[in-house]
Amino acid sequence: MELIQKWKPHLEQEVRSKQLTIEGIKRHIDERRLKDSDREFFTKKLRLFQEQNEMQQRLLWRVETLQWRLSDGLRQLQQMAPPLPLPTGFKEIWGALYATVAGTFNYEVLHSKETKMVGGTQVVIEEHSVTVGHIITALVLFLLGYSLLGKVAHSSVRAAQIRFQLPAARIALLEKLVLYPMILLLALCVLSWVRIPLTVFAYLGGALAIGVGFGAQNLINNFISGIILLFERQVNVGDIVEVDTHTGAITALGSRCSRMRRGDGVEVLIPNSLLLEKNVVNWTLTEPNHRFSFTFTVAYGASIERVMQLVTQALNETPYLLKQPPHCVFFEQFGSDGLIFGVYYWVKLGIEVDPRQPGSDLRFRIDQLFRIEGIHMPFAQRDIHLDSASPVHVHIENEPQNRNPA
User: Does residue 395 form part of some domain?
Assistant: First the structure.
């Protein structure tokens, strides 16, 4: 009831103001010699204001009817049972709190007018007012819509992946391509719904330019870099890359940063700009198969043919080693401590297997086969020569015979 009593005078003032505006437009049409185009413009404007005035009058009539019914209902309730008195202090606190919140919500942040010169007279076509309530409502609606659109984009892209068997590397790109236009459309719809015109941002252009130049420079840079990465597809989800002393698999490409999972399980957040500005080694950009190698030494006297046969057997028995391209064993050279052989094999890099594991299994199998065949891997041996003018005295002491047992 108090709310109706508060807003009814404002509505009555709007009705009177609209009627005065209509009368002014009528006088303007009757008293001036206008061109046909200007007369048509003012006639349409007059018709529009008259329709608005009729709607406001109907709304005022309904408000008065509602006020009368509420007053009648309250009067009947008071006759049936006496009202419960509220503490005077509570009423004052509630009234002050409500007035403060309402005043803050209706505080006008920006006011703009759209005018047009007609017959040498500047006529106000439309007025725009942006309040704190408009801004709060727009933010709440945008956040709710953003959360909903994110789920819609994610579910639709996943459904398309299952339906068309799309690779995982394209999922992030498709999700962003679906989400970003929807966010832009959401922002325009929210601004239109709360009646915040786009022309308002022209007044904030200077402040926004300063904010972007100083506070949001890195954010905008990373955002644009993320879009470039999505379209160029030089770095995809699942790729094993090496950047800025970190090596791991890309698990997500975000709008601001990308997420990498290293071999030790640590997840690293890498700004998208680094993936464009730094030297990035992509191990799986065009070909996931990579060659690894190591050397080993066997003692002199071992059969070279038998050694190569055993190593080839170990290569064939080790899992995760590719058959194509074929692996190979070479007799590299005669070393100072033994015969040096080189082993070369290919492994398909991916998130599911650590590329070091096949190499460890291969070395373990080679050691097993060499132990069975009695082939030794020598350690480094050196001869020491002592150059002395006089004989070197060597004294060897035996352990004492009467040691007490521990």
Answer: no
- Total of domains in the chain: 4
**Are 82 and 94 within one domain?**
yes
The list of the chain residues with pLDDT below 50 reads 84, 406
First to last CA, the chain: 101
User: Please, how many CA atoms are within 13 Å of residue 213, restricted to the half-sphere of its CB?
Assistant: 6
Contact 392, 386 (CB under 8 A): yes
In sequence order, the β-bridge partners of residue 333 are 340
Instruction: Give pLDDT, residue 406.
Output: 44
pTM value is: 0.48
Give the list of residues 6+ apart from residue 122 with CB closer than 8 angstroms, or none.
115, 116
Query: Which of residues 282, 299, 318 is at a domain's end?
Result: 282
The domain in which residue 338 lies consists of: 289-373
Contact 315, 330 (CB under 8 A): no
Cα–Cα dist 234/281, whole Å: 10
**How far is it between the farthest Cα atoms of the chain?**
139
